[in-house]
Here is the input.
Amino acid sequence: MYSNLPNSWFRVARSQDLSAKGVIPLHYFGKDFVLFRTEDGKPHIFDAHCPHLGAHLAHGGRIEGQTLRCPYHGWLWDTNGQCAAIPYPDKAKPKAKIQSWPVLELNGLIMMYYHHQGKLPDWEIPQIPELISGEWTPLRLVHQWKVRTTLQDYMDNSVDVSHLYNLHSRTFKSAHSHGVEIDGPILTHRMSQKYNLSSLAAGKLVLEDGSVTTIYYGPAYDVSFYWTEGKLKLGLLTIFTGTPIDNEHLDIAIFYSVKKVLPFPLSLILNKMLKQDVLETFEQDVSILENKKDIHNPPLYQNDGPVRQSRNWASQFYSENSLTAETLIQK
Here is the structure.
C-alpha cells in the first residue's frame, strides 16, 4: 500500500485556537495528536497517546510549567517527549518517549512538519512582512472545509489557469500564466488577469486588469498577492492551506488580509466584498474536486497553466512509501 501524504509543513490550528496552557486534540495524516502550549507560550505537538497505558493526552491532560501531565496516572512529559517524572516515590523514571513533531507559529497560524520517517525539516515557512506592517488588515479566516480530495488534485487546481475564466467566470474574465520560478521547496507562479469588477470600475477608479503572484511553500501552504490597477490600487492577500486528514480528505482553510487603502466604513465594505468573493469562488471548486477523476498522463496545453511543472516540483515532497515521483509526474 502507498500513501499519498507528502512530507511538508502543514497548518494544524490558528494561534487563537490554542489558549495559554491550552491542550487540544488533533487528527491529521490518519493519526491522533495532542497540541499544547507550555507556560513559556510555545506550542508543541506529540503523538496523542501516553506510552504508559495509552491515555489520550488531550482529553484531561494539563500543563505544569514546561511539562504535560497525563490525565490517567499523572506522568509528566517534557517538550522533547521524554518522561520528566512519575508520581511513584523512590521509583526511577523510565526511559519512555513520545514522538514529538516540529512546530512553527507565525502569520497567526500553527504549523506542523510531518514526515513519514519522522525526519526533521531543512526549511521553514517565513513570516509574511505585510501581516506585521500595519498597512494590511489582520489575517482572518474566510472559511474551512473538509473536502474529499488529495493534496495533489488540490495543487493542480491551484495552478490550473484556464479553469479560472471557465468555472469562475463571475470573478475572472481572462487569465494568463507567466510561468513559474522554482527554488528548492518554494515555487512562485505569476499571472495576469482581468477581473469582473464592473461595480468598482466606474470612472476608472479601479481597472479590470490585475496581477497575482502566488508563492508555494511546499504543496500545502501558499500565499497569493492580488492587485488591481487604476487610480485606486486594491490589494488582497490570501493564504490557502490544505492539511490531509487521511488519504482521501483534506482540511482546507483560506485566510485573507486586505491592503488599507480606503477610509472606514468603505474599507469594511470592501473587506466583506472580497471575503465573499473568495468564499464563493472556492465553493465552486469543492464540487469539482470531490467528483473529479485522476487522468493518467492528461493532454495538457500551455493554456492550462504550469500543471506539469508543479507536479515535477511537488514530487520532491513524497517519500519512498508515498506516491513515487514517477507516478506523480505521470498522473
Observations:
- The radius of gyration is 22 Å.
